């Protein structure tokens, strides 16, 4: 074949590699995944955000050395003193870390102030030390989720307390710049105590980063926005949302590996809603609701975290109250879920968990029993088994991995 046929092939290969990298970045904790085509690191820093109010002895963000060969965690210490860092995110190059701050009185319906914030830090690649860069107002109450886009130039933020979504410019030095876009949600749903108003709970980009998805627990909707990747702005899509069954309370959102399916973790309904995804329109069509808990469970439960493993074969969801992690197998053709395992987290209120970048381990943060626990991940069937590795830490809230130099 002539030259004219080889050039499109190289272009397609390059596009495929880029697409794979962006899809992998859509997982809630995928910031630490190695770039496409690169070898996984053997040593990582693990940062854990902790609540600092109430009876907690924690003071902010803590760091650990993680050995990917053995699954061992070695505490480094307090990396940044900050009030109630409820969510962490890094940029695609792992040079910067971002953290939201919830004010101490932002607990319960109607108790949220309007002065939440988001802070930026530079990461020392050799020691894991964090250097404070700056802090800006989150333009809403109860900021609970942040995401840096694949260019590293835009930060998206969801304010739970006041039900809004915001984008900020990121400066070349990693500090946070001016607010670019803002949208205030409105509405409510059937639970008058918890859904009295909008509660935006996450902000996740589509695999091609053309659309932004924001699950809103208060309105039982997933809001959909069109994104201008160059400007960092967003605007309502058409369709502008998808509505879930009343009372499910959508919390977190992730895409499957190939981007054809999306998964919404519902906090109040303790379930995962599966959607087929139309990448051209940015639209979601529900195809399944999988319930995370045993049919005979009668207690109060609030599902918290969701993640698809790097192979795209398994999905994990944590359940607070039932205090477990549910493991599902993903049908590669249909995107639907089949229950594989429901395993206790050996502690109370598993608010957060994260798969390590190699996919061999899962670490869970039990918020109320004040500990981090490590699980082996069976690479064949996705099941979890405790390794015996445990680290005491007051009120762990969010976990991210970053490759160490």
Summarize the SSE layout with pairings.
Elements: H1 3-24, E1 43-50, E2 60-67, E3 72-81, E4 85-90, E5 96-101, E6 117-123, E7 130-137, E8 143-148, E9 154-159, E10 164-170, E11 176-184, E12 204-205, E13 211-216, E14 221-228, E15 233-243, E16 250-255, E17 261-266, E18 271-278, E19 283-291, E20 302-308, E21 314-320, E22 324-330, E23 337-344, E24 350-355, E25 361-366, E26 371-377, E27 384-392, E28 396-403
Antiparallel strand pairs: 1-2, 1-28, 2-3, 4-5, 5-6, 6-7, 8-9, 9-10, 10-11, 12-13, 13-14, 14-15, 16-17, 17-18, 18-19, 20-21, 21-22, 22-23, 24-25, 25-26, 26-27
User: The biggest beta sheet, please?
Assistant: 4 strands, antiparallel
What's the tally of helices?
Answer: 1
Report the order of strands and helices. HEEEEEEEEEEEEEEEEEEEEEEEEEEEE
Quaternary structure = single chain
Global outline = globular
Total count of strands: 28
Q: Ends: how far apart?
A: 44 Å
- Average per-residue pLDDT, rounded, comes to 90
Unreliable stretches: 1-28, 30-39
How much of the polypeptide forms β-strand, as a percent range?
A: over 45%
């Amino acid at each position: 074949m002539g030259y004219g046929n080889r050039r499109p092939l190289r272009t397609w290969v390059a596009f495929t590699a880029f697409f794979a990298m962006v899809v992998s970045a859509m997982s809630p904790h995928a910031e630490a995944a190695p770039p496409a085509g690169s070898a996984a690191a053997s040593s990582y820093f693990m940062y854990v955000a902790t609540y600092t109010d109430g009876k907690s002895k924690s003071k902010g963000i803590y760091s650990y050395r993680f050995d990917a060969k053995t699954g061992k965690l070695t505490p480094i210490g307090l990396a940044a003193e900050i009030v109630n860092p409820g969510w962490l995110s890094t940029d695609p190059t792992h040079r910067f870390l971002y953290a939201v701050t919830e004010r101490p009185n932002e607990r319960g319906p109607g108790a949220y102030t309007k002065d939440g914030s988001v802070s930026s830090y530079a990461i020392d690649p050799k020691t894991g030390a964090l250097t404070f860069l700056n802090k800006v107002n989150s333009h809403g109450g109860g900021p609970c989720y942040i995401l840096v886009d694949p260019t590293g130039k835009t930060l998206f933020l969801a304010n739970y307390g006041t039900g809004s979504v915001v984008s900020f410019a990121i400066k070349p030095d990693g500090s946070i710049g001016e607010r670019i876009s803002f949208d205030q949600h409105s509405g409510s749903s059937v639970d008058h105590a918890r859904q009295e108003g909008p509660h935006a709970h996450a902000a996740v980009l589509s695999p091609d980063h053309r659309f932004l998805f924001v699950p809103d627990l208060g309105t039982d909707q997933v809001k959909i926005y069109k994104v201008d990747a160059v400007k960092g702005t967003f605007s309502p899509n058409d369709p502008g949302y998808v509505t879930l069954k009343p009372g499910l309370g959508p919390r977190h959102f992730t895409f499957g590996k190939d981007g054809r399916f999306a998964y919404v973790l519902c906090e109040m309904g303790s379930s995962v809603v599966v959607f087929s995804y139309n990448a051209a329109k940015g639209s979601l069509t529900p195809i399944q609701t999988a319930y995370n808990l045993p049919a005979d469970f009668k207690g109060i439960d609030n599902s918290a975290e969701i993640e698809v493993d790097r192979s795209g074969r398994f999905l994990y969801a944590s359940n607070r109250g039932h205090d477990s992690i549910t493991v599902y197998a993903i049908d590669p053709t249909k995107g639907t879920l089949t229950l594989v395992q429901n395993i206790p987290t050996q502690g109370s209120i598993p608010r957060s968990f994260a798969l390590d970048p190699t996919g061999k381990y899962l670490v869970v943060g039990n918020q109320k029993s004040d500990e981090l626990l490590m699980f082996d991940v069976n690479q064949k069937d996705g099941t979890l088994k405790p390794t015996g590795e445990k680290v005491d830490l007051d009120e762990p809230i969010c976990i991210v991995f970053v490759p160490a130099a």
